[in-house]
Amino acid sequence: MSLAGLFSSRWPGVALFDLDGTLVDSAPDLAAAVDQMLEHLGRSPVGIDRVRDWVGNGASVLVRRALARQTDWEPAQPKDDALFNDALAIFFHAYEQINGQHAVVYDGVEACLAKLKGHGCKLAVVTNKPEQFIAPLLEQMGLDHWFDLSVGGDTLSVKKPDPAPLLHAMEALGGTRGTTVMVGDSSADIDAALAAGLPCVAVRYGYNFGQSVDALGADAVVDSLAELL
Ligand SMILES: O=C(O)COP(=O)(O)O
Ligand SMILES: [Mg+2]
Question: C-alpha angle with apex 226: 16 to 144, nearest 5 degrees?
Fold first, then answer.
C-alpha cells in the first residue's frame, strides 16, 4: 500500500502525522523527565522500558500512569489532587529542559515527508503532546520546516482518540475525507482516524502500550515510512 493509494482522489492531499513514536523516538527524553519527577517526589525511577508503554495519551495520563506505575491505570483521583498537580508541574519543568536532547527521527521519516511535500501535500502534526513542547522538538529534530500546522493534546478541549483534532487539522489545511490520511503508532491514532472516517497507516516501531498495532484496523501497517514511497 502506497500513500498515493490511500488517497481516494488525486494528489495533492493532506497528511496528518502523530509525533511521539511515529516521527520521533522521544521515549528517552520522556523517560528521563518522568524519572526526574519520580526522584524529586522521593520515589524510585521506572526507566525507559516502562515509560515507552505509557506514552500516547498525553502528559497528564503519562504522569498519572507513572505515579500509579501501571499502564492501564485510569485516572481515579480528582484532577486537582495535590500530588498529581505537583508531579505534573515537576514533569513539565524537567521535560522542558530535556525535550529533544536524546530524541531521534525514525528512519524513513524525512524521505516520506519530502515525497509528500514534493507532491504538494499539506502536512500537519496531530499529537497528544502538550502544544508548548511541539515546536521545540520539531526544531531540534530539524523537522519543523515540513509542517504547515501542528495540533497538540491541549489545542482543543479533546484529544485523540477523539476524531476532533484530526478533523480540525484537515479542515484548517483545506483537506477533505477523500484527500486526507492519518499516520500513527498507537490505538489513539487509529481509533481517531476510524472515528473521523479517514484512511490511516499504523507504524509498528512506535509505542502502543506494549501491544501490536496489526489488529487495530489501519488500512496499512508498515515497519518504516519508507515502505509508503
Ligand atoms: O502522549 C503524548 O504525550 C504524545 O503522544 P503522541 O505524539 O503519540 O500523540
Ligand atoms: Mg504516538
Answer: 45
Note whether 112 and 192 are same-domain residues.
Answer: yes
Q: Does residue 19 line the site of ligand 1, with CB under 6 A?
A: yes
ipTM: 0.98
Residue 227 burial class via C-beta count within 10 angstroms: exposed 0-12, middle 13-18, buried 19 and up: middle
**Together in a domain, 54 and 94:** yes
22 lies in the same domain as 48: no
Q: What pTM, to 2 d.p., does this model score?
A: 0.93
Domain that holds residue 52: 27-98
- Pocket flag, ligand 1, residue 179 (CB < 6 Å): no
Residue-wise pLDDT for 20-56, tens only, equals: 999 999 999 999 999 999 999 999 999 999 999 999 9
